[in-house]
Amino acid sequence: MDFHVKDLSLAEQGKNRIEWAEIDMPVLRKEIRERFIKEKPLKGIRIAACLHVTTETANLMRTLKEGGAEVYLCASNPLSTQDDVAAALVKYYDIPVFAIKGEDEDTYYSHIRELLKRKPHITMDDGADLISTLHKEYPELTSEVIGGTEETTTGVIRLKAMAKDGALKYPVIAVNEALTKHLFDNRYGTGQSTIDGILRATNRLISGSVFVVAGYGWCGKGVAMRARGMGAEVIVTEVDPIKALEARMDGFRVMPMIEAAKVGDIFCTVTGNINVIREEHFRVMKDGAIISNSGHFNVEIDIPALERMAVKKRKVREFVEEYTLQDGRRIYLLAEGRLVNLSAAEGHPASVMDMSFANQALSAEYIVKEGKNLKPDVYVVPGHIDRRVAELKLKAMGIAIDELTPEQVEYLNSWEMGT
């Protein structure tokens, strides 16, 4: 088996952590994997997955393989790989993995190309690097692809742009758009794991600080909520008037970044856009300001501008780089501007990824059944899959809910009953 991981001797540790995560993923482990083992809905299908190589992802890969698929995995971010997990997937589960934490850009893309050489029938993306590389460098292979999935807001934005330009050659299910994904994974997962990453990187007290959140989408809502819960004074910056209004109604201060930059102690970007924090903001930041990003790519902070402005740079902690400016002020960049929740911490808790990866597994099954009937475009997760994931999660949590009575169904479907 061809693979490229850091050290196979880490495999036992990784296996233990994979099994620990599995305990908190009952939907994927029990409700989906057990059926996949019996039915083999993915038999004969080659799946190339460019995802964060974490314990939760490992359990998704195991489920897909149990469903009959031939699975290949590479990292969707150079700093998010858990090397022990990568080793365990190779050694104990016979799944080829191409991922090493801290790999350079050339290695990162060489790993993506290794997956594409396997001529996948389904692609799974976390940021759309796999699918964009496939379209740019291996266009002849697109005809063999039945369909793909995309996990992130950033990736969905890229794929919709491809579809709009007529460049997308096969259908893609936007797993990120599933209600059981973005309402929970983005809000509760990103919220908790981002704070976790900032704390592990800095060991700073959040209580009493001024915490600036750039972007008030579902991820921003989660980060702002958790920062406030830790005792911070939270400021939200936005470009969308509706989201800005919502942030204010939720009790947060709202202002332009140029004003927030003057008072913030800790900054976190979650917008999916470029240069959200840039030179004019660095120029007015307080000495000791901490800047981080929890969006998918390391473009939300204008790091080249910070490099140009700095007269001195040094690494002060494992995930903390100190930039000293000409006037002596110091700005601290976390995790090289990459997503701090996966670079400096372990990413989302398994419980919330249980729903996201249940959507991935069921979307892959849907693609096998319906992919040939779909035109090249970006599609939301079918409603019956989204609802089924919610039902399975409630069942796993031991929660029962009401059902509509026949009378209630009739009332909701009638226009005549009224008052």
TrEMBL record:
Positions contributing to substrate binding: 54, 126, 151, 181, 185
Keyword S-adenosyl-L-methionine: no
Pathway(s) this gene product operates in, as recorded in its UniProt entry: Amino-acid biosynthesis; L-homocysteine biosynthesis; L-homocysteine from S-adenosyl-L-homocysteine: step 1/1
Keyword line: Cytoplasm, Hydrolase, NAD, One-carbon metabolism
Required cofactor(s): NAD(+)
Superkingdom of origin organism: Bacteria
EC number annotated for this UniProt entry: 3.13.2.1
Record note on cofactor: Binds 1 NAD(+) per subunit.
GO MF annotations, alphabetized: adenosylhomocysteinase activity
Keyword NAD: yes
Enzyme class: hydrolase
GO CC annotations, alphabetized: cytosol
InterPro entries tied to this protein: Adenosylhomocyst_ase-like_sf, Adenosylhomocysteinase-like, Ado_hCys_hydrolase_NAD-bd, NAD(P)-bd_dom_sf, S-Ado-L-homoCys_hydrolase_CS
CDD domains from the UniProt entry: SAHH
Gene Ontology BP term (one): S-adenosylmethionine cycle
Function: May play a key role in the regulation of the intracellular concentration of adenosylhomocysteine.
HAMAP family: AdoHcyase (MF_00563)
The protein's name: Adenosylhomocysteinase
Organism: Phorcysia thermohydrogeniphila
Gene name of the encoded protein: ahcY
